[in-house]
């Protein structure tokens, strides 16, 4: 069976190729990005490679040049072109292209013919719009190249604005009708003259009739702009631009930047001149602030088990010196030992309190994420199954083309996401990485353990975050058949 690699991120194209695979016409391998397609080509080359233009932001020319270097000899590369420009690039490289703008049935027939080598359908070419452009251009240029047609138009317009003789010569017309007829006769010549001017301008812009009545030359840039210059062979936009260039620049546009440049050094000089006074005053308050903020004041609060006498002696150590003179021989001996003893005991408690502080700070950090509040963006375009939630409380089911998704919801948070492949297929690495990143918030995982259950190899994995995984692979080829991402 012919093996085909499809590099496309469009669901419509993937669905058509899956339909052809269901008819056992080809064996399909899909990749939604260019890097994953390169990995697939390196791992298992295919007979045909279909790549969608503009995928991953690359043009058809770049895609063809890049993939031609990677394909093995004899492999067929086909560009899925979205327009005539991409098809022309494929033709320059000697590669075949398929028009993606075709209807689904016709596109499927064209792809089948490319794979099997059968004749292409009659309407499967993309060059048809490009071939009709010269004919359309000739038809558009035809009215301007035929002076007799323009003369007939002028005659019809002049006849349309002509006043009927029956109205002007009607002797029984009322005074109001006569006034209206006179007003119409005055307005009609003005409209006819305006139409003649418009027709002359239109003919003078291009066409065969332009050679008979040459347009007046464009006035040089040094002359002042006149109202008539607008019709002197240039557009209104060009005339306005030329007039803007000749306008004199306002003086304040130069004065304002100069004032800003002068003000910046002056302000910086005045601010720097005042700063020494603030620097001198600041140290006067620092010594007073240090004792209050020093960690030595914290031990009485951090050590509530200390006796009251010790608490009273420590803050009162400075006043103990004036109390020595009244009883010098008696108080001088017992007084010195208590301060060192009391100071030596709470001193270790201060570092202990400081060491105990970091765990409290770590505990004050926000709690780890316990679930996803919204559905992951990968589920956009899937079809929900409302009946599944009625028979399985707390679960939601969504059906996609490549897999089905089941989510467990509790307390308005999605706690788990189960992904299972459909129609006996496998789950691509791109889809797995995307769900792990969008739902689990992790970019990588680590396999903790693996065991064989039935025909599957079950891997228990963990991430750096608060999520874990269970991956089910085929025991023979280790292809991924399903996985579960859940919050711990």
From TrEMBL:
<protein>
    <submittedName>
        <fullName>Uncharacterized protein</fullName>
    </submittedName>
</protein>
<feature type="compositionally biased region" description="Pro residues">
    <location>
        <begin position="316"/>
        <end position="341"/>
    </location>
</feature>
<keyword id="KW-0472">Membrane</keyword>
<feature type="region of interest" description="Disordered">
    <location>
        <begin position="205"/>
        <end position="226"/>
    </location>
</feature>
<feature type="compositionally biased region" description="Low complexity">
    <location>
        <begin position="131"/>
        <end position="144"/>
    </location>
</feature>
<keyword id="KW-0812">Transmembrane</keyword>
<feature type="compositionally biased region" description="Pro residues">
    <location>
        <begin position="297"/>
        <end position="307"/>
    </location>
</feature>
<feature type="compositionally biased region" description="Low complexity">
    <location>
        <begin position="342"/>
        <end position="366"/>
    </location>
</feature>
<feature type="transmembrane region" description="Helical">
    <location>
        <begin position="251"/>
        <end position="271"/>
    </location>
</feature>
<feature type="region of interest" description="Disordered">
    <location>
        <begin position="131"/>
        <end position="172"/>
    </location>
</feature>
<keyword id="KW-1133">Transmembrane helix</keyword>
<feature type="region of interest" description="Disordered">
    <location>
        <begin position="289"/>
        <end position="392"/>
    </location>
</feature>
């Amino acid at each position: 069976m012919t093996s085909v690699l499809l590099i496309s991120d469009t669901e419509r194209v993937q669905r058509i190729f899956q339909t052809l695979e269901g008819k056992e016409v080809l064996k399909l391998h899909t990749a939604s990005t260019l890097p994953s397609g390169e990995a697939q080509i390196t791992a298992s080359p295919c007979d045909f490679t279909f790549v969608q233009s503009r995928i991953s932001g690359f043009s058809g020319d770049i895609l063809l040049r890049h993939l031609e270097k990677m394909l093995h000899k004899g492999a067929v590369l086909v560009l899925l072109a979205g327009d005539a420009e991409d098809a022309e690039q494929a033709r320059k490289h000697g590669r075949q292209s398929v028009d993606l703008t075709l209807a689904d049935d016709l596109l499927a027939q064209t792809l089948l013919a490319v794979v099997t080598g059968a004749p292409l359908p009659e309407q499967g070419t993309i060059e048809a719009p490009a071939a009709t452009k010269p004919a359309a251009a000739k038809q558009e240029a035809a009215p301007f190249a035929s002076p007799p047609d323009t003369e007939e138009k002028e005659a019809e317009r002049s006849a349309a604005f002509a006043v009927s003789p029956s109205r002007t010569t009607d002797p029984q017309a009322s005074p109001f009708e006569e006034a209206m007829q006179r007003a119409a006769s005055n307005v009609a010549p003005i409209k006819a003259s305006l139409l003649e001017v418009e027709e002359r301008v239109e003919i003078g812009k291009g066409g065969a009739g332009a050679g008979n009545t040459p347009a007046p030359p464009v006035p040089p840039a040094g002359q002042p702009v006149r109202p008539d210059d607008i019709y002197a062979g240039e557009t209104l936009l060009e005339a306005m631009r030329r007039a803007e260039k000749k306008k004199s620049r306002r003086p304040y546009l130069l004065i304002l930047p100069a004032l800003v440049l002068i003000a910046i050094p002056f302000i910086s000089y005045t601010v720097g001149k005042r700063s020494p006074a603030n620097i001198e005053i600041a140290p006067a308050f620092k010594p007073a602030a240090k004792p209050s903020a020093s960690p030595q004041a914290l031990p009485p609060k951090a050590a509530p088990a200390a006796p009251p006498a010790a608490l009273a002696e420590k803050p009162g150590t400075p006043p103990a010196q004036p109390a020595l003179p009244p009883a010098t021989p008696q108080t001088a001996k017992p007084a010195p030992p208590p301060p060192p003893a009391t100071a030596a005991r709470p001193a270790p408690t201060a570092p202990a309190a400081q060491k105990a502080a970091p765990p409290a700070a770590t505990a004050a950090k926000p709690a780890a994420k316990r679930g996803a509040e919204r559905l992951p963006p990968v589920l956009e375009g899937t079809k929900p199954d409302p009946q599944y939630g009625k028979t399985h409380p707390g679960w939601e089911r969504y059906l996609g083309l490549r897999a089905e998704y089941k989510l467990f919801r509790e307390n308005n948070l999605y706690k788990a996401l189960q992904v299972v492949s459909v129609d006996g297929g496998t789950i691509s690495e791109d889809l797995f990485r995307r769900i792990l990143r969008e739902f689990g918030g992790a970019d990588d995982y680590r396999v903790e353990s693996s065991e064989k259950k039935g025909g599957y190899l079950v891997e228990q994995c963990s991430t750096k975050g608060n999520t874990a995984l269970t991956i089910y692979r085929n025991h023979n080829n280790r292809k991924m058949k399903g996985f579960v991402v859940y919050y711990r």
